[in-house]
Structure formats: C-alpha cells, structure tokens
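Final report, closing paragraph on structural work. Over the funding period we assembled a curated collection of sequence-structure pairs, and we close with a single example.
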Amino acid sequence: MQPSDFSAPAHAPASERSIGTSRRHWLAGTSLPLVAAVAGILALAAWPRPEAPTSVDLTALVAAQSAEPTTVTAADEDFAANVEYTVQRNDTLDQIFRSVGIDMAALVELRQRPEVRRALDIVRPGDIITLTHVDGALQSLNRQISNTLTLSVARSGDGFAVNYVENPLETEIVGRSAQITSSLFAAGQEAGMSAETIMTLANQIFGWDIDFALDIRDGDEFSVLYEQKFQDGQYVNDGRVLAAEFVNQGKTHRAVWFQSQDGEVQGYFTPEGKGMRKAFLRAPLDFTRVSSVFNPRRKHPISGVVRAHKGVDYAAPTGTPIWAAGEGRVQFAGRKGGYGNVVTIDHGKGISTVYGHMSRFGKSARGGRTVKQGDIIGYVGMTGAATGPHLHYEYRIKGVHKNPATIPMPRTEIPSSYLAEFRGQAESEFAKLQLTSGQRGIAMVASR
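Its predicted structure, as stored:
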C-alpha cells in the first residue's frame, strides 16, 4: 500500500560563497584605432574592484561547531522535517518509518517499553501520525489513540520522554424533530441528524416494528433525544440515542435506552419495559429497495413461469454485508442451484432462515458454526438465478415459508427486579423527549 501524500520541507542552511570574478581582456591587435584603445583603458580603470575576502580562523570555527548540541532548538527548528502521515490499509509502523526516512533505531528503542509498544503497533486505516525528524533522527511522534487520548513522544537527552495527553469529550443532550416528505434518511438529514443516528433509529430501535422501505408514508413524524460529543468546542460525533418516538401511519412507537446500574440489563425498551429488539431482524442488511415481495403467485422474471416467490428480495450494491437475522447454527453454506451462493441458518424450535445470491461468504458462514444476530455471514451478489445484485431472504417455520415482513416476533422483557429502576429512568428521558416532540429542528435540552 502506498503511503499518503505528504509535504515534508527539508531546508538546508544557506552557505556563503565568495564568488571571484575573473576578467579576461582580449586585444584585437595593433590595428585598433587609438581612440578605442584609450576608451578601453579608461573603462578598465573605472571597473569596480572586488572587496578583499574576510579572514576566517577555520580551526576556531570547527571547534565552535563541534561544541554545539545536536538536538533541535527553537533557533534551528527549520532544520527539522515535519510529517503528517495518514495510515493506509496494511500499513505497519515499520513501513511508515522507512517510507518517511526515519532511522529504525528509534522505533526499536520505543518498542522496548511495553506500554508504548501497545500504543504504537496497533495502527488502523485513517489514523494520523505526526512525526518530526532531523536527517532521519526522530525528534517527536504524536498519534491519537482515541477521541480522548493522545500518545506524545519527544526526544529527551539520550532517550525519549513519553506522555499520554488526555483531552476529554464534552457531552450535550439535544432533541430533534422532523416530518417525512420523502424518506426517513432525507428528513433526518434535513433536521441536522448524522447518518449514524438515523440508521440507529431504523436498525437498532424501530426496525423490528416498521419496514422503512414499505411502511413509511409522507406525513409520518419522529422525535429523537440523543447525545452529541464535543472536544474543545468542536463537534466530534453523535453519541447514544436516549429516547425516540416515531408516528407511522397514525400509530405511535416509543422507545428508551436503559442500562441497569449493575450492567446486567441494557438495550432499547418500550415504555412498558418490553424490548425493542426481537429474536429476528426484519431485514438482514442495509438495502436500497425491496425489489420483490413475498408473493405466492409471482411471475418469475427469468423463466416467465408463475410460481410462488417464497421470500423477500432486497436490492443492494454488490458487496453489501448480510447479517444473520437471529442467533443460530449454520446448517449449510455453499452453492445450490438457483440460489447461487446460499447460507441456511437453523435457529431452533423449527425456525430457519435462508440467504441467497451472495457474491461471497463471510467468516462466520461455516457449517456447524454458531452465529449471533448481526454477525456478517456473506455479501450481496447475483450468483445463481438473479438479474441484478440483491439478497433473497426466506423465513421458514417447520419447513413452511412465511412472510418475513409480517410474521409476529416475540419481544424480550425487563426482569421484574429491574422494573422500578427502569421506570424512574424512562420517565425522565421521555419527559425530555416531550420537549422536542412537535418542534421542527432542534431543541437544546441539557449538558453533561
């Protein structure tokens, strides 16, 4: 992988040079007119003479330079090369040092310190590492380990001083409300929400009750209470969604985040304490559109024969990750007729799900392996009998195909011993959400 472009000015000190001007005068011969000869003599007499060079004691100069320190100071900072390197895929710190031209001895020395080695060796694409060196000798290194922690290394004497600089995030709780005129995503963006927060609403909170491809209508409304993270006054990212309300075709859905003090119970729940997450995902991928619904009398697009379409087709770009709809055991992963590359998962109690037309399999898709809901089992493709990239998804109960978009799915519930704690927290969050509900745009609620 090629390292990213960077600008590293390398300035060398300007050396003073005495430039001696050599003059050569050529006489054309004795036949020149006397006037021209006299003019030439006068011109030579008027030519400025070079100044005599300044006398320098070379022995004293060399001794003075040898006594100067070799570390970088403010007076000679222009000698240093500053590099801001963005880590690319498959980069290692060894490769980065070599590509920048820094002596590997410094890296070896730093790696001898276990706490530094852990912070240095794990580099991820997109990480930014700032380096300063003088003729390949490392002077400083800075890399952000997380949003709140930075590793800072600086040359000190014969070694390096290592510090971890904390820069905590400030959290603000905000509320936003919007009305849908085209799609959830467009309405959320218009209200100022990030893509991550919008997808949380669709995938982690309301996705088990609302089909955001088929059920959304113009005029639907939603309100969201969530965290925003700031650092030194600058926005960093959105945090957790704390509470949300979605009115779909006149029906109101509400959810709140709850985490018990002992950490044993956490997730999104209805005001009554029933879990929003169900045993199965309605749609096991981020799809573009539903290209074919569950239909017992569908006309096949390739053969033209009328036969039942026993699943739902979700159109999505090739390579889109496909998730296990629920926890279970991989019953089959391989090639099978018109399904192309297909995975079948046995979820117990007679329930199984099927995922067809994959371009390739995920690491979790191995026969006999146990998978959890949300594990990547493959990627969208168009293998087998398919006219375009999509996922063919089936839901079966004791071998009988059911419509995955409409079949009822059980919810989990908060244990009775946690209900009192849940109700106190839920009432507080829903009260804050109510301040936002019905107000277009943003209502600042509180800071943490």
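The chain has eight helices and 23 strands. The two ends are 42 Å apart (CA to CA). We thank the funder for supporting this effort.
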